[in-house]
Amino acid sequence: MFRRLITINEILELYAAGERDFTGLAISSLDPYYLSGVDLSGSDFRDTEFGILDLYEVDLSRANLSGLNIDRPWFVRSNLSGTNLSSTDFWRATFEDTNLTLANLSGAYLQEAHFDRVDLRGADLIGAHLLDSQFWENNLRGATIDADLWRSGRFRNTIMPDGSIKNPTGIPLTGFQFQVEQLTFPFF
User: Fold this and answer.
1) Which domains does the chain have, with CATH numbers?
2) Is residue 32 scored above 70 in pLDDT?
3) CA nearest neighbour of 46 among 76, 20, 71, 72
């Protein structure tokens, strides 16, 4: 399949001009491996070869990233609320202080992913492959998950879909070792 080669700067110029369809492109590998402080909300990046690995404070809310394959992407303080991440292959991804509320992660391959202080309220994780993934201080309240996540994921101070809190051993906490209110998500 032929893919049109494009730079990040060209994408940002097209986005500013109102374009949102970036399907089937190949982002130049000559571009830097990070993107910081940009708004690409509502964009469609299906079937795009994405060379960018680190995204800092990027707004991809309501974007379609389904089917992307990126090894070790890093999302820091980014907004991915309502984003379609179904069937993505984000092996060893890191999501740190990121908003994934109502995101569709169904069928995503996220083996060995790290979720640190991530808001996953209402996210769809059905069929997501999360073997050896870590969930540190996250909020999964109302998320839909498979039973496999309970067995394959590692949790620390994470609010589970039913509102219970899991500690490092995966056993629900008894008593009040910390307050749920401490798990806040001030970003976006």
Assistant:
1) 33-188 (2.160.20.80)
2) no
3) 20
